[in-house]
Structure formats: structure tokens, C-alpha cells
Write a structure and sequence with these properties.
Blueprint lengths: L8 H14 L5 H5 L7 E5 L8 H15 L3 E3 L8 E6 L9 H7 L2 H6 L10 E5 L3 E2 L3 E7 L4 H17 L10 E7 L6 H12 L5 E5 L1 E9 L4 E9 L2
Antiparallel strand pairs: 1-3, 1-9, 2-7, 4-6, 4-8, 5-6, 6-7, 9-10
Helix pairs in contact: 3-7
Length: 232
């Protein structure tokens, strides 16, 4: 079961070969200034993930044992899936004049019909953890393709109406770990991670709302849910 069908096996094999050559990508923000004030604007689904705390807690504890000195592991409250990023916090690390201009758009974005997708709640399937060069993720499948249709519809409308160039992830996922430094033995770390992750499928979850979220600390470590869009 690991990692397909949730993540392409060939792509993952290539990623791991690269990791063994050059190591992991250290996240300099989390390593040096994790509590910096930022301004990010995102459309998310699940903050936190729409699963029980218990189903995530065991995975969290195992990842902490494996990598507490080398990585930042997302606690349950910070888990989320980004549908699209409207304002990238990395480009707005400190609130400024541009931030104030963006804030004025928020009420219009909330009231805009382009975010009224007219969808009913839909199902996702959350797969086992996958280790990549810069992070570990939970890959997500959406067999009925609501996420794809939402991204295709909403991104150009937001760009046209508000000149916000939405950044859309290549896949559906929830990041659960980022590196603070490289492990002393990269090969051993990969093997231990794969053993931990094998067949650890989180399972199905229902998405019944989208959220417009304000990111005030990097990677949604803190923020505000500005508005919930119900999919009823």
C-alpha cells in the first residue's frame, strides 16, 4: 500500500535518491525565526484536519520520537490542507502598507460569489505519510475531483476580480513535518520513516466547508479563520 496509490512510487524513489545525495532542505524560517509576524491569506479545507485527534496523535508521537531534534512536527491543531494561497506569507513576512491594502479586500472576497461553489460535502482519502526533500506530508486523494474543479474555477476568478494571483499546490496534501537541520544519518532516517509510515493510512474524511484563513505565524502555526464557506 505504501506509497501508491496516494503518491507516485517512481517520483518518490527519485526524490529519495536526491535526498541521499544532497540531504534534506532545512526550513530556515522555522529553524531561526518561527514566531515572526507574517501576513498570509489562504483558502483551506480542514484547519485542523477533519479527523479525530486520536487518529493523528499516535502518528505525531512516533514522528516526534523519530525526529524531535531534527524537525518541526505539526501538532494536530496546526494541520490543514491548502486549497490555494492568495497571499504568500513568505512575501509578506512583516505587516506593511501592502498588507493594509490586502486587508481591505477581505470583506469583498468573503461576499464574492466566486467562492460560492454550490457544492455539497465531499469525501477525501488521507494516505500514509510520505517523506520528501523539504517536508513530510499526508497525501490526499479526492476521487470525485471536487478539489480540482474548485481550483480551476476559483483561481482565475480571484485573479480577475481582485488581482490576486492564487498559488495552487500541485497535489492535495497536508504537511506534517519540516526540517530544522539534517539528520546525522540520512539513510537511516529514511528507512525508519518508511517503516513508521508503511500502511499507516489515516482513512476517509468529509469536507463540508472551506475557510478563508489569515496566517499570522509561518505555516499556519497561528492565525484567524476569517470566514467559513459551508458546502451544504
Amino acid at each position: 500500500m505504501y506509497p501508491e496509490p496516494y503518491f507516485d512510487k517512481q517520483i518518490l524513489s527519485k526524490e529519495h535518491k536526491e535526498i541521499k545525495k544532497t540531504g534534506f532542505v532545512v526550513d530556515t524560517i522555522l529553524a531561526h525565526d518561527p514566531n515572526m509576524s507574517v501576513y498570509g491569506l489562504n483558502i483551506t479545507m480542514g484547519w485542523p484536519l477533519p479527523i479525530s485527534l486520536n487518529s493523528y496523535e499516535m502518528l505525531y508521537r512516533e514522528l516526534m520520537v523519530l525526529s524531535s531534534e531534527n524537525a518541526y512536527v505539526y501538532p494536530y491543531a496546526q494541520t490543514h490542507m491548502t486549497l490555494m494561497t492568495l497571499v504568500n506569507f513568505k512575501k509578506n513576512r512583516y505587516p506593511n502598507e501592502k498588507t493594509e491594502c490586502i486587508k481591505t479586500l477581505v470583506p469583498e472576497i468573503i461576499s464574492s460569489s466566486c467562492l460560492e461553489a454550490g457544492l455539497k460535502p465531499f469525501m477525501i482519502n488521507i494516505g500514509p505519510p510520505v517523506l520528501l526533500k523539504s517536508a513530510a506530508i499526508l497525501p490526499v486523494l479526492n476521487f470525485t475531483r471536487e478539489v480540482l474543479r474548485l481550483r480551476e474555477k476559483i483561481a482565475p476568478l480571484l485573479n480577475k476580480a481582485f488581482s490576486l494571483k492564487a498559488e495552487v499546490p500541485q497535489n492535495i496534501h497536508s504537511t506534517i513535518l519540516r526540517f530544522l537541520k539534517n539528520p546525522s544519518d540520512t539513510n537511516a532516517f529514511i528507512k525508519k520513516f518508511e517503516s513508521l509510515a508503511k500502511n499507516k493510512i489515516i482513512g476517509q474524511a468529509v469536507i463540508n466547508e472551506l475557510s478563508l484563513t489569515l496566517e499570522t505565524k509561518p505555516y499556519m502555526r497561528d492565525g484567524i479563520n476569517l470566514h467559513r464557506f459551508s458546502l451544504t
